[in-house]
Amino acid sequence: MKSAVVVFPGSNCDRDIAVALEQVTGTRPVMVWHRDTTLPDDIALVAVPGGFSYGDYLRSGAIAARSPIMRDVVDRAGKGLPVLGICNGFQVLTEAGLLPGALMRNAGLDFVCRDVALTANETRSMFTNGYSAGETIRIPVAHHDGNYVADVETLDRLEGEGQVAFRYAEPVNGSARDIAGLVNADGNVLGMMPHPERRIEPAHGGTDGRRLFEGLLERVA
Amino acid sequence: MKLTIHVTLKPGVLDPQGKAIEHALSGLGFEGVHGARVGKLIELDVDEGTSDADLDAMCRKLLANTVIENYRIQRA
Fold it and tell me: For this UniProt entry, what's an example GO CC term (chain A) (predicted)?
């Protein structure tokens, strides 16, 4: 399965996600610089990695979401290309309008960096079919702005339409309805604050993150 | 032409930073502080002829996230 990873100035999980994708899919992803204007034609997935794009200036993900490559990411997402945004990538996807809502400063104001328990809430999507619905998994978070905010109508719609992929199973950042990860209405865009690419081999302390990539490979390849 | 853009959180959006400021003011002994909300102030220097529509677009497309923020454009 061919894939691409978008790299912004300040991305710092781009190599981690590339390693995870290469390990699981057997193909090294193409790294795409933010100033590029087009993604490779033959990819089956584009990942928007974690980090601190543009130093989190203005708002986390705000400047990155307006960079040249994101126009093609948004365009291709609209045509069904799977898009995976992790941590800062999730923030970028909300700022780019691919996912609803916004990610604000953590309720406790702390930078939260630890393993957290998540519930796999909706497991029919291409990103979450490797999990059982209601299953508890452990994946690390590392973020300052992960407090998901949306208006009540949007939250009700997300829950009603089965778009809440992951919820926190413990207090983490004050997110509305404990939302840790969301898919878009078409199911081809996932944004999540936890880092599945940091749990892909036993030496990481677990492989709960690997199953996301394995499930994706099964569905997409 | 110099302008000031005020970006503020929409009413109802919780502001943990504002809460922390409110508590810190109380801790300093200032009584009667009933709220604090943190926003942003952006000073822009633009061409004289810049239209209101363009300024509005700048705010909507980048300077404010209208999911959570309101903005106000103040001329000099």
Answer: cytoplasm
